[in-house]
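Need tokens for this chain, all 126 residues.
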Amino acid sequence: QVQLVESGGGLVQPGDSLRLSCAASGRTFSTYNRGWFRQPPGKEREFVAAIGRSAGSTRYADSVKGRFTRSRDNAKDTVYLQMNSLKPKDTAVYYCAVDRISSDYVSASRGRYDNWGQGTQVTVSS
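Here are the structure tokens for all 126 residues:
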């Protein structure tokens, strides 16, 4: 069974940092781009960041540029999202997913991604 499992969420204060992980099991996704999305309370799921299959390309939403960093370890088939300088507006359930197509183009489109994880809650509050 193919599965993505996110971890690392929690309750933090504004300005704090968190590192999210997304581990794959059931098959390897090392040759696919990997995306992070989030769904704030009462809102639609939105793109956060994505990383290319070779880790040479990354893409970020404007709202997180300069604060979030994506990385991946293909040997572990795991991707990471380092989140610094967290703000209350970053509060959301964070999901990882896999690009449907193995290509060099890193997409920010939700419809392009599949194999969604169950999500991990990130709450930023003082």
